[in-house]
Structures are given as C-alpha cells and as structure tokens.
Specification:
By secondary structure, the protein is an alpha+beta fold. The protein folds into 2 domains: 263 residues, no CATH class; 297 residues, Beta-galactosidase, Chain A, domain 5 (Distorted Sandwich), CATH 2.70.98.90. The strands form 4 sheets. It has a 9-stranded antiparallel sheet with strand order 7-9-10-11-20-17-16-13-14, with no helix packed on it.
Length: 625
C-alpha cells in the first residue's frame, strides 16, 4: 500500500480507537442470581371514576389503629393535611396493553413500571426501576407550612387494586383532604393519572378543589422531585451502564445529556420541556407540555452496590410555576418504553435524540435517519432473520459505494504502474536537501500521467461517515435486542462461544467468534491488499506496516465486549470487499492502463499553480547558493 492509502485507512482506525478510549468500561460488580415474582394479571370490573369525585372527609377513613398515630400530628404542627401523615401504605396496579404501572398510596407515586412486551436478558419480567425504587415528590408551599406529597397517605378512588385499562381513556385518582383547625374539610389535593389502552405514555394531572383555602394566592413555585435507581436489564452490565444517563430538552427542544461514563451533575437555569432517565434500550421521560420547568438540578451517579441487578441512580429537582388563581392543574406526561426511533419521533418532542445515532455530526445522523433506518425497517416487513437483514443491508450499501471502491482501486492501479518511475526519481534525489526537487519531479510525473495522488485517499474518507454511522447504529438498535443468528443468541450483545473463567486485560473473560472472524478477515485484507499493490516494508514509512497489522489486533480487544451485529457487519464488509477487489482487478488490465498513461503523456502539460510555486521556491534556493 502507498502512503496516501495507508493514511486513509489509518484515519478510519484512529477514529475507532478514539471511540474505544471514550468507551472504556467501568469495573462491573460481582454478579449473583436473584429471582423476581411476576404479578398475575386478572380481569376486573372498573368503575367510571371520571365522574366528579365525592367530597370525602379523610378523618372518617382512619382506623382506630391509625388514630393512635395522630399523637403529635395536628393542624398546628403539620398543617392542613395532618390527617394524611399517618395511615397504611397500600399498592395499586394499572395495566394496559404495553405496560404495568405499580403505584403506592403513600405519595400517590409510581414505584415501578414493567414493560410487558420485553424481557430481561435472563428472561425475567423487564422492570425499569431497581427494587421498586422510584420516588416522586411534589413540594407545595401551603398557607401553613411546606407540604411534601411523598409523606402523605392518599386515598385511591378505585374499588379494585388491579385495574386493566381496556378503553381509550381511563383515570385513576388519588386524593388527600385539607382541613382547618376545626377538622372540617376545606379543600382537596388530587392526583389524576390518565391512561390509554395501547400507549407507552400516560398523563398526570395534579389539581385542587378549593385550592385557595390551603394555597396562597398568586404564583407558587412548586418543586417536582424525581429520583430513581435504574435496573440492569441487559447481558453486559458495563455496556449498559456506559449507555445510561439523563437526557433533557430545553423548551425550544434543544437536547443535551449528562456524562454516560462518570458521575455527573448539572444545574439548569433555562426552561426544560422534558427530562429522561435513559438506559441502553429503554427510557422513562417526564414531560411538561403546558408550561416548562423553569429551572432544574440533574444528577447521575453509580452507587457502590453488590447487587448485579442495580444499574445507576438518577435524580432531578425541577421548579414549576403554579398559580391556583389561574391554573386549572399541573399537567405532566410520563413516557415509559423502548428506544425505538419511529415511536419516539411520533411525539414531536425530539425524544429520539436519546438514541445515539451520531447527532453531534450531522452527516452521520442523516445516514442513519434517511438511509439505514428506513431500509432496515423496510426489510423487517418480510419477517427475515435479523442476520439476513444485516447481510442484505450490507450488500446494498456496498453496491451504493461501489463507484468509490472502483475509484480507489483504479487510483492504486495507476500508482502501481508508475512505481518504476517513482523509484527512479527517489534514486535521482536521495539527499534531504533535494526534497523540493524530488517533490517537483513527482508532481511533474503525476501531472504528465494524468494522476491525482490524493484521489486514492479521498474516496476512503468519503466512506468514513458510513463506517461511523454503522458503528453508532448497530449497538443502539433495539430491533436487534435478543435476536439470534447462527451462534449469537443476542445480536445487540457479544456472542460468546467460550467462557474463559478468568479475565484478560483489555480483552475480557470470553471469546466472541464474530469479533475473532472480523479481526482475521481484516488482517487477511491488509495482507492481500499489500500483495495487490506490490508493496513491501522498504516502500512504506518506518513502523507504518507494523501499525496496519497491529491495529486490527487491538480492535479484537475492543469489539470482544461489543455488539455482535457490529462485528458481523464489519466481517461482511471485508468479505464483500474481497470479492469486489478481485472482480475489479479482473476488469482493469494494467497493460491497457499503462498504454493509456503513455498516450496521456503525449499531451502538452500545463503547469499548475502548485508547480509554479515549487519552481519559484527552487529558484530562490539556487540564488541563495
């Protein structure tokens, strides 16, 4: 290979090495086996709770046992909702076609969300939050004190504790009654959760009845606190953890996120439209549609925990401006579901920006959005195995890129024909002080032969965005999750054919066959290309030849823990490239190419500005002598 070709390949390799350094994994906690029980779904008869709620005196719902706990709790000490500071915590499940939402009557909060159409890597029910540790709290400033809803025992306004939603709109309400110093009910605080039959989102409306009896008039700064311990759901904890963080969007939908690979926190002073707790393939999003969160504090970190089902901890504290004089309610929306591009894009909130498709460099994102994803989704309609889909997608991409491959090989063939002339010039000007003369002679040779020495490198650079686009697409495609092909049980994770039982630094504790085959094919490609170009160690820069063979071996360690689909794709690229090179070599006859170059040399040569500049430099050097 010539210098310009090697530089082109190295540019691709260097970028991938940068990715490997950025994706350096954390040390995973020791795994151990645990089990979880699944709640059996049952059909229930539901009451129409969308009707106006009756006024209920919360003191009548207290049992004698609860009343004993009222000692020390009074209107004077705890404020208008003091009756709700004691009670019995109960649970409630709301289920539709796609998820189960587990509520606690304490705080009227969501404790867990289970996605019914997905399982964890070890076939457990897929739950977003570790050990049901999702906490939601709304802080109001009442006329009497500071009210934290997480401390209140709400009364659910449904008769059943397991509700199956089978209509377009169904409301589950929790209420707490405000009283005055005479224990008379003066108002209510109500949480309405509004569900749909077949949707990954549901609305939360926090409203009041006679709210001005316990809230001060004018604008109230309400604090919305959301804290979650996320659960591990994928096979490789390190990879899932390194793809989990908080994403957020400003009210004009400019998106950003906290660090994925280290603990991070940020104070947001501008308005936010949504906050998302994202893992590798799933997300839960708190959306404020009616008005934005005016400011927020976000934090993501990893606890020191031995339980293998723990992933990461995320928390947010946001300020919401609520005026009981004018606002009917605080309106929020929850989304809890998979990171599917088409699904997230349908909300028109840029939720799809959570999928790492190369958003920081527009051409990479465009390739994924307008080429890869549409073709991938089109092939899915035929119910093909995903390994076959990747094969067809690779063939289509290589067909589109064939003109670039052809131009690259043609440029290399021309340089190979000129090799004797290039060697003659190198022998004529062996001294370093003759570098300008040698460069001028080479430029004259290229010019007279009609060859651009950079034409071999440029086509390879044009392929670089596609290589990186694939690097981003395959590990983040939830469509590949738990899809098998040949010996790979899950194309979104590594394909282990041998568990070593011990860890090799920079490699891992297993052998991924697709990664091994990809590495061997890359080494073979390097060797075959070297022979086709008729190059050897003496014709390359010092250490360059060693580097071309060493880099694929370094990739072996990086890709060993990565998506099997990505290694399989690069393996296919190498194999198809082999076929294309041998086919092009058969079509391009070097004798005919040499005759064309000789014919071109008979034409008059017009000096370029670069050649004129070189001649001027040479003349100046001769004058100094």
């Amino acid at each position: 290979m010539k210098k310009n070709e090697i530089i082109g390949i190295l540019l691709i390799f260097v970028i991938l090495i940068v990715f490997s350094l950025l994706n350096k994994p954390h040390t995973p906690p020791q795994q151990q086996t645990t089990t979880e029980q699944d709640t059996t779904t049952k059909n229930v008869v539901k009451k129409d709770i969308e009707k106006p709620l009756p006024v209920v005196d919360s003191t009548k719902d207290k049992t004698p046992e609860d009343s004993t706990h009222l000692k020390g709790f009074s209107y004077a000490s705890k404020g208008e909702f003091f009756h709700h500071f004691t009670g019995k915590e109960d649970s409630l499940i709301v289920e539709n076609d796609v998820f189960k939402v587990y509520f606690s009557t304490k705080g009227a909060s969501i404790k867990q969300i289970e996605l019914k159409q997905f399982l964890t890597w070890d076939k457990r029910p897929l739950k977003l939050y570790f050990n049901d540790e999702n906490f939601f709290n709304v802080v109001f400033t009442t006329k009497k004190n500071i009210l934290h809803t997480e401390k209140l025992y709400f009364l659910p306004r449904v008769s059943d504790r397991h509700v199956v939603v089978n209509k377009d709109s169904f409301i589950v309400s929790f209420e707490a009654s405000a009283v005055n110093e005479n224990d008379s009910v003066t108002g209510k605080l109500i949480f309405d959760y509004i569900f749909k039959k077949n949707a990954y989102d549901f609305d939360l409306k926090i409203r009041t009845i006679n709210g001005l009896t316990f809230l001060p008039p004018g604008t109230n700064l309400v604090t919305v606190e959301w804290n979650s311990n996320l659960a591990q759901n994928e096979k490789h904890l390190e990879t899932e953890r390194n793809n989990s963080t908080i994403h957020y969007a400003s009210y004009d939908l400019e998106t950003n996120y906290l660090s994925e690979r280290r603990d991070d926190e940020k104070k947001i002073t501008f308005q936010l439209a949504w906050i998302a707790y994202k893992s590798q393939f799933f997300t839960s999003v708190l959306i404020s549609k009616q008005k934005p969160f005016s400011s927020s504090e976000l934090k993501v970190y990893t606890r020191d925990m031995d339980d293998p089902h723990y992933l990461k901890t995320m928390s947010s504290t946001s300020v919401y401006e609520f005026n009981p004089d004018k606002d009917n309610a605080i309106r929020l929306t929850w989304f809890a579901g998979p990171l599917k591009y088409k699904l997230l894009r349908s909300y028109h909130l840029k939720l799809e920006r959570q999928i790492p498709l190369g958003w920081s460099f527009a051409p990479i994102a465009w390739i994924n959005i307008y080429i890869v994803i549409p073709v991938f989704n089109w092939l899915e309609r035929y119910n093909l195995n995903y390994g076959i889909i990747i094969l067809i997608l690779t063939i289509l991409l290589k067909i589109v890129l064939f003109p670039i491959t052809y131009r690259t090989y043609l440029s290399s063939a021309k340089m190979r024909v000129l090799q004797p002339d290039i060697e003659a010039i190198n022998k004529k000007y062996p001294k370093p002080e003759d570098a300008v003369k040698k460069q001028q002679a080479l430029m004259n040779l290229y010019k007279s032969s009609g060859i651009n020495p950079a034409s071999g490198c440029l086509p390879m650079l044009l392929q670089l965005p596609i290589l990186i686009a694939m690097f981003r697409f395959f590990p983040s495609a939830i469509e590949l999750r738990q899809k098998s092909f040949l010996w790979a049980h899950d194309l979104s994770s590594y394909d282990s054919i041998l568990d070593l039982g011990f860890n090799i630094p920079f490699y891992g504790d297993h052998v991924s066959l697709f990664t091994l085959l990809m590495t061997l094919s890359t080494l073979a490609y390097t060797r075959i290309n070297e022979k086709l170009m008729n190059t050897n160690a003496s014709q390359t820069l010092p250490g360059m030849r060693l580097m071309t063979y060493l880099l694929p071996i370094l990739f072996l360690g990086f890709f060993n823990n990565y998506s099997a689909a990505l290694s399989y794709y690069y393996l296919l690229v190498n194999l198809i490239t082999f076929a294309q090179i041998f086919g092009i070599r058969y079509l391009i006859k070097e004798e005919k190419l040499k005759a064309q170059i000789e014919e071109y040399r008979k034409r008059p040569i017009k000096k370029s500005k670069w050649q004129q500049r070189l001649e001027e430099i040479q003349k100046q050097q001769q004058r100094k002598r």
